[in-house]
Amino acid sequence: MKLQGVRVLDLSLFLPGPYLTTVMADHGAEVIKVEPPAGEPVRSIGLRANGESVWFRNTHRGKKSVVLNLKDPADLAALHDLARSCDVMLESFRPGVADRLGIGATAMTALNPRLVYCSISAFGQDGPLRDRPAHDLAVEALAGTVSISLGQDGKPTHPNVPLADVTASLLALSAILMALYRRETTGRGDVIDMAMFDATLSWLPNATGAVFAEDRPPRVKEERQWGGGAFYNIYDTKDGKWVVLGGSEHKFVETLLHALGRADLIPAASGPPGPAHKLTETFLRETFATKTRDEWEAWFAGRDVCFAPVLDLREALHQPHSLARRMLVRDEEGNLHLGLPIKFRDEPGTLNPKLPKLGEHTAEAIAEARKRLADG
């Protein structure tokens, strides 16, 4: 597998860091999860299946668990030895905490110059907001994405997908892999400062037109991607469900409106989003309300239009395409897992469903690290 031989020391908690290291573990990295004596919080958060948190199962499979109290000198020395034996170290403390504990970037890279050290935090290691406590929703509020997530009443609503968490996680993974690649030439690691805030802002190139071009916030309901376009919108169906049109290219507009007998609407519906789309949107709302979701799916079959039924999460995970792509995997014990989204042809990843018991690998991992150091 691509990351075979890479050793990762993961001190992160909750979602961004653990998701990142799960991807690495799925592709062959040895991930040593350092947990506080009370354990990773998500061991006890959310619904459980077969005795384990579903959240924990999907972010800690295939890892080793080491329990250390970093305020204890012996445990701190063990952490230092682990870091000296690893390629990557990941932490998600508030800025300054790792330094106070004696495990900050400066100390760790001095011990191991080849170490790639990554900090994931809400707002980064510097700047006016660095010390502000925050999880995903608060970061999104300050990054502006909550303001563009409006409900039908025009008020901000929960974004639902943890955008700040996942964007930081994926960009941090990219940064770690870049640093490991560069290390092959320089022989030295690097230090990564990944802010969820920065990551969220960076994923908005299609949403900043009004700000950059006209120095104003977007008029959300007039923007194509947020309901201002008739062919990029959500529509109610006869049975109380929903469908979407998800592509506003002229060919899709022309195909559908010809099929529905309203070619007269094509010019306006092919133009810029906003008030000019209202007449087409009204027609489509009335039309979609005449059939059930499944009837519309059957009607659209074979038509070259960006159309999709709105599936609930269970339907989405159990649909034939998810199963064909192995994005829903059931292990030998019957537990369900989210599958591997990165699919290599020659060296595919492997989902290891084994979950570590709290502290299961403490003695083993420390002994292995010290043996490696002794062997040079």
From TrEMBL:
The UniProt record lists the keyword Flavoprotein: no
Domain of life, source organism: Bacteria
Key words of the record: Transferase
GO molecular function: transferase activity
Signal peptide residues on this chain, from the entry's feature table: none
A Pfam family: CoA_transf_3
InterPro entries: CoA-transferase_III (IPR050509), CoA-Trfase_fam_III (IPR003673), CoA-Trfase_III_dom3_sf (IPR044855), CoA-Trfase_III_dom_1_sf (IPR023606)
Keyword Chaperone in annotation: no
PANTHER family listed in its UniProt record: ALPHA-METHYLACYL-COA RACEMASE, SUCCINYL-COA--D-CITRAMALATE COA-TRANSFERASE
Name the record gives this protein: CoA transferase
